[in-house]
Amino acid sequence: MAADPRIITTTDELAAFCELAKQQPYVTLDTEFLRERTYYSKLCLIQMALPPASAAKAQGGPATLVDPLAPGLSLEPLYDLFRHKATVKVFHAARQDLEIFFHDAGIFPDPLFDTQVAAMVCGFGEQAGYETLVKRIARQPLDKSSRFTDWSRRPLTQAQAEYALADVTHLRAIYEFLSTQLKKTGREAWVAEEAQALVNPETYISRPEDAWERVRTRSGSPRFLAVVRELARFRETYAQTRDIPRSRVFKDDALIELASTKPLTEEDLGKSRLLLREARKGEIAQGILDAVKAGVETTDLPKVIPDEPGRPGNAALSQLLRVLLQAKADAAGVAPKLIASSSELDAIATGVRDLPALSGWRAEVFGHDALRLAQGKIALSAQNGAVKVVPAE
Questions:
Q1: Which of 36, 50, 204, 387 is deepest in the core (most CB within 10 A)?
Q2: What is the Cα–Cα distance from 358 to 299, expressed in whole angstroms?
Q3: Are 219 and 266 part of one and the same domain?
Q4: How far apart are CA 273 and CA 258, in angstroms?
Q5: Those residues with Cβ within 8 angstroms of residue 221's Cβ, 6 or more apart along the chain or in another chain
């Protein structure tokens, strides 16, 4: 990297680089952002790199930084590149990056390649972190000294610039290696299928009416859950409209306390052990009291789905499915976590069939045999230290 890397700060410079990127088979990208003080991530930096063989001499050269905080800079040239289907947009662990672009412009990169997903498909295990892939594939050290930094401050330091560019320059070797492996194994469609899930808008939409489902509670009382639902709805709406973290309104432990004590007045709120001082008066206090009242008075109670520990064989079948999953994942060289989650295995054991683990490429690797095991059509046997699928007797 040059001693003083060029940082793109104008729309024209960004447009020139993106036009150059459209001539390449792929471009690697990453972002740096802050979210500690906001509800939505604040985009602070974009890193981009073209293939190393590129003779590009555009703004910033084959790898560049884009400053989205620069006055007057529009990201529309980048979004135009996202729409350009001839150039693959390569990210590592893309979800947070995609969330930023979706909320900013309602757009996703197309086509998308996520090296974290590809690494799990290619046998690098469930913890396919970027640093691990840089060491194992690019054979390069990675300086993480600027990992925890305030990316909104300007000017960027030399160390920050080098750290940021490393996140996309090493990614080129990782992408080329993984894409070659996928072609050899015929699993390109697997990664493409996962990319489609990543660009589903529903993944990035937080609806206030559903926010209560993320709150962990010990009580299954419908009335208690109704108050939890209304408190979570108010908190989510308040945080979204003011772009502040949920925890700045009130934290989950305070929410549970409020749902239990059901305060009726600001004086009652003052007795809370967990509620922030700012939430005991004003708009937040009134919102809490209104939410509690709505939860107490509603006739639309949450439907509590009882656990089914009593269904014969559920627990035992779940364990067998875990053994089958590990055996199938080992045979395919794929991370088990990518194929099916523990909750999906439990759901299969209780008869649920509309699950990702039972469709697409996952069905080929695991799902079909999982159903056959659940139906008693196959059994598992230990042979020479390995688990094998055998016909049921």
A1: 50
A2: 37
A3: yes
A4: 10
A5: none
Which residues, in sequence order, are CB contacts of 168 under 8 Å at separation 6+? 28, 29, 30, 47, 48, 49, 63
d(CA 151, CA 147): 10
In sequence order, the β-bridge partners of residue 15 are none
Q: Which amino acid is at 115?
A: T
Q: How far apart are CA 342 and CA 393, in angstroms?
A: 28
342 with 240, same domain? Answer: no
Alpha helices in 186-221 (DSSP H): 188-198
d(CA 253, CA 257): 6
User: Strands 26-34 and 386-391: what pairing?
Assistant: unpaired
Residue 370 contacts residue 392 (beta carbons within 8 Å) = no
d(CA 142, CA 140): 6
Region for 151 from its dihedrals, namely left if φ exceeds 0, alpha if ψ lies in -120 to 50, beta otherwise? alpha
pLDDT tens readout for residues 184-198: 999 999 999 999 999
Which residue has 């708009």 as its token pair?
283
Asked whether 120 and 365 are in contact (CB, 8 A), the reply is no
What pLDDT, in 10s, does the model give residues 164-217?
999 999 999 999 999 999 999 999 999 999 999 999 999 999 999 999 999 999
CATH of the domain at 358: 1.10.150
Picking from 389, 325, 317, 333, the residue whose alpha carbon sits closest to that of residue 357 is 325
pTM: 0.87
Task: In whole angstroms, give the CA distance from residue 338 to residue 334.
Answer: 7
Q: Extract the tokens encoding 221.
A: 């009382």
In a domain, 304, yes or no: no
Asked if residues 98 and 197 have their Cβ atoms less than 8 Å apart, the reply is: no
Q: 345 is in which domain, residue-wise? A: 315-391
